[in-house]
Write a structure and sequence with these properties.
The structure holds two protein chains of two kinds. By secondary structure, chain A is of the alpha+beta class. Chain A has three helices and ten strands; from the N terminus they run E-H-E-E-E-E-H-E-E-E-H-E-E. In chain A, the strands form three sheets. In chain A, strands 1-6-8-2 form a four-stranded mixed beta sheet, with helices on both faces. In chain A, strands 7-5-9-10 form a four-stranded antiparallel beta sheet, with no helix packed on it. Chain A has a two-stranded antiparallel sheet with strand order 3-4. The longest helix of chain A has 18 residues. Chain A is elongated and about 65 Å long. The N and C termini of chain A lie far apart (54 Å). By secondary structure, chain B is α+β, with helices and mostly antiparallel strands. Chain B is built from two helices and five strands. In chain B, strands 2-1-5-3-4 form a five-stranded mixed beta sheet. The chains are: A alpha+beta, B alpha+beta. At the A-B interface, strand 5, helix 2, helix 3 and strand 9 of A face strand 4 of B.
Chain lengths: 146, 80
């Protein structure tokens, strides 16, 4: 019998403190990696032409962590990923701040690119985290209503 | 049976708090719960969609609920 063990190391966190890009990159780097791919989400100053003052994020934390773990597992089933990191911020974020960092390392770049994109795209569809956009004249939970 | 429901995002505004307690028949399903909630909080029906999570997993309408389950209303997510 041949036993194949594929190891994936992941770091999944939800934090109310500012996210650190450099430490995220440092964490996924390893001597075995041939490349890393990083996605950094940033708070945009407008939505559909309307100025946004700030965003407010909240999470159902235990479920959000569980869903992010599933996504990382799915990504590593699809592509030969070595390390994968998801850090998501919650609380009040001003324009230019960072709500999310995804970082993936792999032996070759294609797997890192594909897995990183899969992780952020799927996170946006399934992970129970919500953002409220605050405007000068009101506020709205994003995607709540048709 | 008594159950406690957690609410997040826009659902928190609709239910008027972060959790509500409801009395349900034993072995009620997710579908039964959604029907009851929509009677009590008609604004739920105006959402693009919403899911129910049981013990940190997305649940299906036919899934049964039990007294100590952790139940949450999951309005459309918008993280990232």
């Amino acid at each position: 019998m041949i036993l194949i063990i594929k190891l994936l190391t992941s770091d999944i966190q939800i934090s109310s403190k500012p996210l650190n890009i450099q430490s995220a990159i440092d964490w996924v780097m390893s001597p075995e990696s041939g490349g890393i791919d990083v996605f950094i989400g940033t708070v945009r100053n407008s939505t559909k032409g309307k100025p946004v003052i700030r965003l407010e994020f909240e999470a159902y934390e235990p479920m959000a962590i569980a869903e992010m773990e599933k996504i990382v597992k799915q990504a590593s089933d699809k592509w030969p990923v070595q390390k994968a990191l998801i850090h998501h911020r919650i609380g009040v974020l001003e324009v230019g701040e960072i709500p999310v960092i995804i970082a993936v390392s792999a032996a070759h770049r294609a797997a890192a690119f594909d897995a990183c994109r899969y992780i952020i795209d799927t996170l946006k569809q399934t992970v129970p985290i919500w953002k409220k956009e605050v405007f000068e004249d009101g506020e709205v939970w994003v995607a709540a209503h048709p | 049976m008594k159950i406690k429901i957690l609410a997040f995002g826009v659902a928190k505004d609709i239910l008027g708090g972060t959790s509500v307690n409801l009395e349900l028949i034993n072995d009620a399903t997710v579908y039964n719960l959604q029907y009851l909630l929509e009677q009590q909080y008609p604004r739920l029906k105006q959402l693009s969609s919403y899911m129910v999570a049981v013990n940190n997993e997305y649940a299906l309408p036919g899934d049964s609920l039990h007294e100590r389950d952790e139940i949450a209303i999951i309005p459309p997510v918008s993280g990232g």
